């Protein structure tokens, strides 16, 4: 079994358990449930740099990235760096994250927040809203076209933006529909962990222009962004390159300053 299948299987168990602990009615009573959300897609459209900065402690491909930071400082640092949005890993088992991380980030900044999660159930979208997210991620490789349609329409009904992630042509063709806001190309193959910016390059012309194009993973320098911009990418999701430093906010500040020169 590949790692993605394993994660998805564990996730089904986890979500079943969570549902038993916190009923939907309770999520809907969260003070955050009725708030106005902020659109990441709009921020990206109006930005020169287009950086989405991620909070990620560890990953199955890299083990530990950084364990010594607190989410509040990271969120404040990213906000003052001028990023367009922040991505927060909420998976505990493989990425060391939690919904509390999302809540802490929400309390510390006004950036649009992406719940970075393996979403396989509508319940997780309600959680995203209740814990402060403005955007959800849907991963095409673990969902059917019907799932993608159902989940994205549900997210839109809650005023959340939807970032749909693909890694190849087949996933892209399966996924195109009007209820998505952003199309993300993951440069990392989630089954093998191989990373190549060529994935973003080769899929770019197959993505219709009505979606904001986002390139995800393995972006470790300004040159990578300069290389991808001519292909129409307006968003760049960066995790490890910022998180491996002691001060991710400072590292994002320097990155964006150089990029906007
Ligand atoms: O740390 P990186 O290589 O900059 O990558 C960030 C982000 O793209 C990556 O964490 C990611 C992209 N899609 C995902 C899906 C699930 C978990 C994680 C991811």
UniProtKB/TrEMBL annotation:
Q: Name one Pfam family in it.
A: IGPS
Protein name, entry field: Indole-3-glycerol phosphate synthase
Q: Which reaction does it catalyse?
A: 1-(2-carboxyphenylamino)-1-deoxy-D-ribulose 5-phosphate + H(+) = (1S,2R)-1-C-(indol-3-yl)glycerol 3-phosphate + CO2 + H2O
Its family remark reads: Belongs to the TrpC family.
The pathway it acts in is: Amino-acid biosynthesis; L-tryptophan biosynthesis; L-tryptophan from chorismate: step 4/5
Matches recorded under PANTHER family: INDOLE-3-GLYCEROL-PHOSPHATE SYNTHASE (PTHR22854:SF2), TRYPTOPHAN BIOSYNTHESIS PROTEIN (PTHR22854)
Can the keyword Oxidoreductase be found in this entry's annotation?
no
Q: Enumerate the CDD domains for this protein.
A: IGPS (cd00331)
Q: Which NCBIfam families match?
A: PRK00278.2-4
Which residues are listed as membrane-spanning?
Answer: none
Keywords in alphabetical order: Amino-acid biosynthesis, Aromatic amino acid biosynthesis, Decarboxylase, Lyase, Tryptophan biosynthesis
- Enzyme kind, highest EC tier: lyase
Per the UniProt entry, the Enzyme Commission number(s) are 4.1.1.48
Query: What superkingdom heads the lineage?
Result: Bacteria
